[in-house]
Amino acid sequence: MTPFLFCFGLGFTASEVISQLPDWDVGGTQRHPVQKNENTAHQIKLIQFDGLLPAHDLEELDQKITHILLSVPPGEHGDPVYNLMGEWISNLPNLQWIGYLSTTGVYGNLEGATATEDMPCNPSGLRGSRRMRAEQDWLELYNSKALPIHIFRLPGIYGPNRNQLDSVKSGKAHRIVKKGHVFSRIHVEDLAQIITASMKAPNPGQIYNVSDDEAAPPQDVVTYAAKLLNVDPPPLQDFDTADLSPMARSFYADNKRVSNNRIKTELGVSLRYPTYRQGLDALFKNM
Fold this sequence. Notes:
32% of the residues lie in helices and 18% in strands.
């Protein structure tokens, strides 16, 4: 049978995954009433799912779905897909693979040390705590019902129309300096190839850190983007005195590097963009 990927949350990452599976049947959810499918590469079966009520019109897909990608963020009451659709997913007869997109925020603050998948979770913020709970819920279904779940812990994602080149051009980029602080990141094309590699070699219950090879201070990425654009970078600002919203400031609470050894050794992934420099170079050439 033709593989069928259903994406709960048909957003930036899911769209890239779909583009890398041209011969698959695909479907997905969107929050608002379904509009006309304008995707020219695929005929996507679109279903409305707002996280408040169970998704309807899925019965015809029961026998077809072989793979599920979960990228809907958890809320105050947990993961809405798990809460509302977990039982339905558990009973799909031909399900081979499920991928849950989590965050490296579940590790909390490591003061610049490196996170591996075998480390205990210790989230320092609300978002990380909610993701940890969602991971635990899905892994419980793996343990109790052999659900073929795979956890992907993601850093910052960048790619076309979502990168520091665009931020510099629009005047929205900032160079915030917090001594010794680094972020990990991943190009969306590499993220998608990691996910599809897992689909081809399922290992239910496994957890994968996702990142490129170089955690870097965020101000360095902005500086490099400005250099490519041949413009002056925005001024450096000290984190302690910078005018940041509580949300923006919270992103600097955790300082860590992320080990990506498992995606290479187990999934055989060779990153197309091993650092932000290769990623921004490619995006600049395609602007």
